[in-house]
Amino acid sequence: MRIIEYEGLRLFSEAGIPTPRFSVVDEPERAVEAAKHIGLPVVLKAQVLVGGRGKAGGVRLVETIEDVRSVASRLLGSEIRGEKVRKLIVAEAVKHSKELYLSIIVDRASNRHLILSSMMGGVDVEELLKNHPEALIKVPIDPLTGLREWHTRKLAAHLNLSTNTSIQLQDIVRKLYNIYTQYCCDLAEINPLALTENEKFVALDAKIIVDDNAVRIKGFRFAEETGAESEAERLGLNYVELDGDIGVVCNGAGLTMATMDLIHTLGGRPGCFLDLGGGASSERVFTALKFLLNRPHIKLVFLNVLGGITRCDEVAEGIVRAFDEFGGSKKMVVRLVGTREEEGKRILESRNIEYYTRMLEAAEAAVKQAAKPI
Predict the structure, then answer these.
(1) Exposed, middle or buried, 353 (CB in 10 Å: 0-12/13-18/19+)?
(2) Is there a contact between 85 and 127 (Cβ–Cβ < 8 Å)?
(3) Mean pLDDT, residues 26-35 taken together
(4) Distance between alpha carbon 270 and the CA centroid of its chain, in Å?
(5) How far is the C-alpha of 34 from the C-alpha of 321, rounded, in Å?
(6) Contact 186/211 with Cβ under 8 angstroms?
(7) Mean pLDDT across the stretch 101-119?
(8) Beta bridge pairs of residue 71
(9) pLDDT tens figures, 44-77
(10) Rounded to 5 degrees, what are φ and ψ at 41?
(11) Burial group, residue 232, by CB count within 10 angstroms (0-12, 13-18, 19+)
C-alpha cells in the first residue's frame, strides 16, 4: 500500500528527518491561512497517489496570496490522472543548491535490502539514471545483521560529500532505514533530498510503500487510504499502479512480472501490475477489466492468461462482458492458452475479438498498438 505524501512527511518528521514546514488543507481559504503562517513563497502540492503529478500541474510554486487562493481553487476538486484532489500540502519553499536521490528498497533477487542514492535527484530522476547508471550508488544490506555504520560511511564516501554533509546524510539514512523496517516497507524514498545553501539536508518529498501483508497482519493505519490501489484492494484485486500506459493483467504474480519485463524489453511502458490470481471467475475478470479500463492513464490493456486452474472459457466470458460495457473505448490485446482453451477461443471468435496464443507475438502487438495515437 502506497501512503500519501503528507503522511510520509509526518513519519519523516517524527523520526527526526528534516522536512519543510507544511500544512495540509482541503479548502482554498485554509491554504491562504497556511501560506500566511508559513511565509511566502510556498509550494502547493496536490495529494494524490499517482505518479507524474508535477508534470500534470499538481505541484506549483506560488509567491503571492492571491496566487495561493487561485491555484488552490483550481487544484482542489480537480483530477490528476484520474484521481480527485481532495487535499493539498502548503509547504515552505526551500532554497537549495543540490537535489539528491535516496531510497531503500527490497531487492528480491538477492533477498536483501538495498540502499540507492545519487547526486542526481528531482523530477526526471528515472530518465537521468537510465542515461547515467554510473551515478547511482547501491549498498546492499543483509536483513539478518541490519544497517551498520560502514554501510552509511560507504554511501557518503561514494557521493563525495563534505564532512558536515556526510555526517548529516548518514544520520538521515539511519532514520530512513528505521522507518523502512518498522513499517515493513517495500520502498522508502526521498526525492529530492535537498541540500540547502547553508549545507543542511531537507526531505522535500516522501514516497513510502508498505507491504500489503504487513498492513493486514500488523494493522497499520494511515490517515489517508485512498487512490487506485486502495480501491483495487476493496475490489479484491492485487494491483500496483505504475507510470506507463499499458495495463498488464495476468493470472499469477510470476507471469505478471514476466509480462511486464517483456513489455519493457520491447520498448513499451507498463502502466500497472494486476494479478487475477488462480482460478479467476468470469466475474473477477470482468471486475478487473472494468477497473482498469476506467483508469485514465491506461491506453491499452494487455490480458495475458496461462490457464491452469484458471479456465479460459471463464476468462473469455469476462472479456466479452467488458467489451459489451466499454466497446472500443480502449484497445485490448488478449493472449489466452491453457485449460478449456478451445471453448474460450470460440467465445471470443463469436464476438470477433482477436486473440493470440504466443506470448511474444501478443506482447509485440500490445507495444505496437499502444504506440499509436488514440
Answers:
(1) middle
(2) no
(3) 96
(4) 12
(5) 49
(6) yes
(7) 93
(8) none
(9) 999 998 878 888 899 999 999 999 999 999 999 9
(10) -75, 160
(11) buried
* Active-site residue set: 101, 189
Matching residue, cell 500566511: 36
On whether the pTM is more than 0.85, the answer is no
Alpha helices, H only, 132-238? 149-158, 163-182, 212-218, 228-234
Q: 23, 34 in Cβ contact below 8 A?
A: yes
Total residue count of the chain as it appears in this document: 374
Residue 229 CB: number of other CB atoms within 10 A?
A: 20
Q: Distance (Å, rounded) from C-alpha 144 to C-alpha 276?
A: 33
**Domains present along the chain, CATH in parentheses:** 21-92 (3.30.1490.20), 96-216 (3.30.470.20), 228-368 (3.40.50.261)
Type of residue at 208: I
Q: Give, in order, the Cα–Cα distances in Å from 127 to each of 110, 180, 274, 294, 358.
A: 25, 25, 25, 28, 31
Quote the CA–CA distance of 226 and 314 in Å, as a whole number.
Answer: 31
DSSP 176: H
Please report, for residues 23, 303, 345, the alpha-carbon distance to residue 356 in angstroms, rounded to integers and kept in the order given: 52, 10, 10
The sign of the torsion formed by the CA atoms of 56, 234, 339, 314 equals negative
